[in-house]
Amino acid sequence: MNLPQISEAISPAGIGQAMFELIADLYPICRSITGNGVRQTLKRIQQVVPIEIHEVPSGTKVFDWEVPDEWNIRDAYIKNAGGERLVDFHHSNLHVLNYSIPFRGRMGLHELKEHIFTLPEHPDWIPYRTSYYKRQWGFCMTHRQFMKLRDEEYEVCIDATLAPGSLTYGELCLPGRTTDEVLVSCHVCHPSLCNDNLSGIALAAYLARRLSEQGRRYTYRFVFIPGTIGSITWLALNRTNVARIKHGLVVACVGDSGRLTYKKSRQGNAEIDRAVQHVLKHSGSEYEVLDFVPYGYDERQYGSPGFNLPIGSLTRTPHGRYPEYHTSADNLEFVSSEALAVSLDMYQRVLDVLENNRRYRNLNPYCEPQLGKRGLYGPVGGQADRHLREMALLWVLNLSDGENSLLDIADRANLNFVHIRQAAKDLEECGLLEECQG
Amino acid sequence: MNLPQISEAISPAGIGQAMFELIADLYPICRSITGNGVRQTLKRIQQVVPIEIHEVPSGTKVFDWEVPDEWNIRDAYIKNAGGERLVDFHHSNLHVLNYSIPFRGRMGLHELKEHIFTLPEHPDWIPYRTSYYKRQWGFCMTHRQFMKLRDEEYEVCIDATLAPGSLTYGELCLPGRTTDEVLVSCHVCHPSLCNDNLSGIALAAYLARRLSEQGRRYTYRFVFIPGTIGSITWLALNRTNVARIKHGLVVACVGDSGRLTYKKSRQGNAEIDRAVQHVLKHSGSEYEVLDFVPYGYDERQYGSPGFNLPIGSLTRTPHGRYPEYHTSADNLEFVSSEALAVSLDMYQRVLDVLENNRRYRNLNPYCEPQLGKRGLYGPVGGQADRHLREMALLWVLNLSDGENSLLDIADRANLNFVHIRQAAKDLEECGLLEECQG
Amino acid sequence: MNLPQISEAISPAGIGQAMFELIADLYPICRSITGNGVRQTLKRIQQVVPIEIHEVPSGTKVFDWEVPDEWNIRDAYIKNAGGERLVDFHHSNLHVLNYSIPFRGRMGLHELKEHIFTLPEHPDWIPYRTSYYKRQWGFCMTHRQFMKLRDEEYEVCIDATLAPGSLTYGELCLPGRTTDEVLVSCHVCHPSLCNDNLSGIALAAYLARRLSEQGRRYTYRFVFIPGTIGSITWLALNRTNVARIKHGLVVACVGDSGRLTYKKSRQGNAEIDRAVQHVLKHSGSEYEVLDFVPYGYDERQYGSPGFNLPIGSLTRTPHGRYPEYHTSADNLEFVSSEALAVSLDMYQRVLDVLENNRRYRNLNPYCEPQLGKRGLYGPVGGQADRHLREMALLWVLNLSDGENSLLDIADRANLNFVHIRQAAKDLEECGLLEECQG
Fold first, then answer.
1. pLDDT grade, residue C385 (50/70/90)?
2. For residues B57-66, b (16+ Cβ closer than 10 Å) or e, as one string?
3. Which of A76, B81, C294, C296 lies in disulfide reach of B152, CB 3.0 to 4.6 Å?
4. Residue in A362, A368, A413 nearest the CB of C300
5. Other CB atoms closer than 10 Å to residue C177's CB: what's the count?
6. Does B414 touch chain A (CB under 8 A)?
7. One domain for residues A282 and A177
């Protein structure tokens, strides 16, 4: 696989900025669950990582669902009697009820009101609304705009098409030393909304880029899909392949300033659940862990009882818990390169645990081995470091009976996985430990 | 089975009153573990539900015990030297040590005192005392009465008989669609004491009446038995039948104003234990849950290791925890129709869980089904109701993998069983769910 | 086995004093992991119990280790230019770095300082330091002494030998009715330090003496060994015998005034872990329970994955948690006969649980037996005692289904093991209970 050449290397410090720039580029595009907005988005992602773009025709049966007609929009407005555009799609694509049917007409305020959505409690924000499966048209506007509407005749236009086409998604597979897979999934169906969902797209893209540059134990599969119908479609097309998925994460809402939040997989105590909780616990920052509920993002589909995949979701503030959620206030100011970079770092730490989590067997299981004669004991680093290092060595030796994984050991020892992993490496090098197969 | 005709229907509002009236009718009767008081009591219960009355002869071996001689009493008094009845059985049947042997005699205060029981800490209350297996006679009186006794000669009379006869109990079986049984047991051996045990009798009788008027999945067996020797006798006579008992409750102390208290079955995590705790948790009222201890009411016998039946006990303030317990202060003022009605309602909710707790299989287990096209999604009821309804649907779909019962799902979702049950019904009706057999 | 005759019986009140006197006798001896100090120590212990003394030659391979050369010391000092002994081994054997190589020489302060250890934060205490496996010499002194050293020439002498010899340890086996063993292990390698380790030696010696005077279900094995290399040596020599060890405790730090602290075995929920926690819970005193960590005393070796023996450690303040630890302040004033006696009593209670913990089968499992006709119910002792006794009887009957041990029952009933044990004895005597075999 040849990655596109990028002249300047992205430094760890610069990666948050790069993620933010990707978000800024994608922000103006009007995305939906189908249509050209998704295609444009995936093409821009290809500048970061070489994802493949797939098209699934409208009408394709996917489990209990069907790929819908493709929606594309060029313009939309409400003009007052004086011909002035009071509401204009080109100012914000949130103004149009997403998936509105094409419409042109003239009507009074009374009739028009039936098609208007506002947020009275946030009078300066435009709400984001969709109507994918009920055929209707509508506009979203600030409540302040709405209150100014007078009783006159309005000209309404939604210059859109809703016609057979296809559902578009992106996929990238980074092969590893094994065919066991880690799935990273994000949704690409929201229009001008930054935290939900552009932050997830940016994190997934740059996480893929990072992983593409290093050796991999696991095969990594990244999917950039429209929410719900997209994951259902992808699962329907890959039904037999999903058995390879050993761990996974749904990425979303990773750019805001809130604390990291992990929603467990349906299994609840899968390795991914334990890995994320370990990393969060040792992150030094506040975090929250939520039990699985069959509501939220595409973990709903991955965690349906027929699949029951070990896929959780690592976010910052979860969907619906911040007032800006699904409004025009989820904009470029709501996300920051710093928050994005920290989120990416946390994902990398989680994958680092998965990549390095193995079981070992202590080859000297009767009493402790004499660490001193192997140079593993004593004057290396400061006093505190030395004690930490010794404890990590003793824990790995004590619990490496072929049953406990390094993550089990790290959790029981209450030590950071990176120290336990290093201890295992040191012990393996001097022949005191061997990796368990299988 | 033909229920006796009752002209006026008992309305939900009136049922507490009906229970209270039953208690008031039974209050004056002098009951014990055998004798005519129990027979009279059971006859009055037959005016509510058609229980069968059983007689077990004295001397019958029942496990390690033997049915004792039958005790009946007509009169009892202590007269002073002036012939005045200072203590009179006809004022309160608590005045006589329950199961006193017949006695007539004259004696001084010193000798009489050996046979008198009082409660110095509650000088106006008469204690309730028994001596079923040690042959003795005695009187109970208020401490205030006792302090007034002068050193004179007293005439003492206990006009009772203790002779071969039988132990009497009542039983009602309401057949259901299955032969699996739910046992509801209450004791009928206490004389003029309202909360312990008349409230339990009243609840059991009216619960049976309610159940007799509806369709039943389970067969319900109600037993009205003297405590300890009664349950031991019943278990001895029904030893092979008890395997049919899948759930059960011992009813007692359900008329006072205290909070509801559940004492778990010996098994501790039986379906009845989980059902009661679910109902109490969602009742909106304070409640308490206690672990099983081999002390208390007849759950001691049902929970002996040879039987180990899943039978708990749902009460209000447990026995021994209120000062009025086993005294004349456990009278008609100590119980209320309101408390009785609420207790009955709680029992009904528990049985409703048992009746409707099943396991289902999601017939569309791969990804969520499209609820919208089946009219299960969207504008039904208010916004909050709608969200609750959707969550219930999603939880039932997600966890109906043949393993989880509806109660499991309700507990994991932290939703009221009635919502989960309704969701299952709706999903079954549109073919998305099928009940698991066996 | 003939115990040495001791003219005066050691009364329970006097046993703390006897333990303290043993500590006082052993205090001046300079012990290390090998050498005559250990031999002298074991000889003094033989005045309490007839332990056997074993010698293991230097160079013997013991798992990953080798028995080191034997160290003996006669004298050591630092003289100033005036010939005055500033530091003198005969004042405190802590002054010498334990296992120092022999050395004689003259040097200035600058060079001397490289070989001196002090505790600046406790300027009047001498630290205890060792260098078993790195060949070096050194002195420990108070920081106040150290600060007074002037820049002059010093004469340094360590009159020691480090040469092939042997490692010495003591062992006592008290045979029981079964060959299943309880191991009690303490280390004997510390010089003039009272809590760590003389208190452990004293407790083990007097516990052995007590056990030798009573009937025993278990065989008890006491080992008095140098830390780490001693337990490794003992395990290497007894590799096949350790399968007999069913329970064990490592004794140390039992003479200070701190609360009792139990460090669980590696297994974490072994019978010894539950027995100690039961006794501590019912002791009426504050205590602490710690999870196993592969650091500490010889439980590290017993709990290595190849052995994984159910051996915990019951101490007062754990090693390293009191500032006097491994300093000259861990002296005779730091331990007390009262603390020692209470610690011994706690060990005895634990062993009493192990000795009497059995499973029984209720021979009358259907309903409760009639306790009254067997004299087990009613007027014995006061009201509170009577209730406790009845509850113990009912719990033992209820849970003796062949699955639960008396300790299981005591824990579930939240009653002291001694009451549960008595109830089982009473029930067994009247034929209601029989012991389960195997």
1. confident
2. ebeeebbbbb
3. B81
4. A368
5. 11
6. no
7. yes
- Tokens 């540059």 locate to A213
Residues of chain C found within 8 Å of residue B64, distances taken between Cβ atoms? 364, 367-370
Q: For chain C, say whether A82 makes contact (Cβ under 8 Å).
A: no
pLDDT (average), residues B326-345: 98
Instruction: Give the Cα separation of A160 and A140 in Å (integer).
Output: 16
Same structural domain, C183 and C246: yes
Other C-beta atoms closer than 10 Å to the C-beta of A344 total 23
d(CA B313, CA B292): 9
User: Scanning every residue of chain B, which has its alpha carbon at the shortest distance from the alpha carbon of A239?
Assistant: B366
Q: Can you tell me the ipTM of this complex?
A: 0.94
The pLDDT score that the predictor gives to residue B385 is 83
Examine the domain organization and report whether B230 and B122 are in the same domain: no
Nearest to A226 by CA among A46, A52, A33: A33
pLDDT in tens, C260-276: 999 999 999 999 999 99
Provide the domain limits for residue B384. 359-435
- Beta carbons within 8 Å of A399's beta carbon, 6+ residues apart: A408, A409, A412, A413, C294, C305
Cα A257 to chain centroid distance, Å, stands at 16
Chain A residue with minimum CA distance to C64? A369
Write the CB contacts of A5 (distance below 8 Å, at least 6 apart in sequence): none
Q: Is C304 on the interface with A (CB under 8 A)?
A: yes
In a domain, C6, yes or no: no
Read off the CATH number of the domain in which C17 is found: 3.40.630.10
Q: pLDDT category, A1, cuts 50, 70, 90?
A: very low
Looking at the structure, do residues A251 and A348 belong to the same domain, yes or no?
yes
Bridge partners, C65 (sequence order) = C62
Say yes or no: B90 and B39 in one domain. Answer: no
* Whether residue C193 is found in the same domain as residue C209: yes
Q: What percentage of chain B carries pLDDT values higher than 90?
A: 93
Q: How confident is the model at residue B5 (pLDDT cuts 50, 70, 90)?
A: very low
Across the interface, whether the CB atoms of A301 and B368 are under 8 A apart is answered yes
The minimum CA-CA distance between B354 and chain A, rounded to whole Å, is 25
Q: Which residues pair with C79 in a beta bridge?
A: C85, C155
Q: Pick from B133, B294, B306: which is nearest to C395 by CB?
A: B294
In chain A, the percentage of residues whose pLDDT exceeds 90 is 93
Alpha-carbon gap, residue B350 to B353, rounded angstroms: 5
Which residues in chain C touch residue A368, judged by CB atoms under 8 angstroms apart?
A: 64, 228, 232, 294, 300-301, 304
Q: What is the pLDDT of residue B379?
A: 53
Spatial CB neighbours of C420, under 8 Å, sequence gap ≥ 6 = C392, C395, C396, C406, C409, C410, C413
Domain boundary among B311, B336, B355: B355
What's the pLDDT at B3?
Answer: 43
Please indicate whether, in this complex, the C-beta atoms of A364 and C293 are within 8 angstroms of each other.
no
Cβ-defined contact of B395 to A301 (cutoff 8 Å):
no
Boundary residue ending a domain (A355, A386, A405): A355
What's the confidence (pLDDT) of residue A383? Answer: 67
A11 band by pLDDT with thresholds 50, 70 and 90: low
pTM confidence score = 0.93
**pLDDT > 50? residue B248:** yes
Q: Are C220 and C173 in contact (CB under 8 A)?
A: yes
Evaluate if residue B1 carries a pLDDT over 60.
no
Residue A2: is its pLDDT beyond 90?
A: no
Phi, psi of B367 (to 5 degrees): 65, 170
Q: b/e string for C150-164 if b means 16 or more Cβ within 10 A?
A: eeeebebbbebebee
Mean pLDDT throughout C108-112? 97
Q: Verify whether the Cβ–Cβ distance A295 to B394 is below 8 Å.
A: yes
Whose CA is closest to C263, among C321, C335, C180, C181? Answer: C321
Instruction: Report the residue from C372, C398, C401 with minimal CB separation from B294.
Output: C398
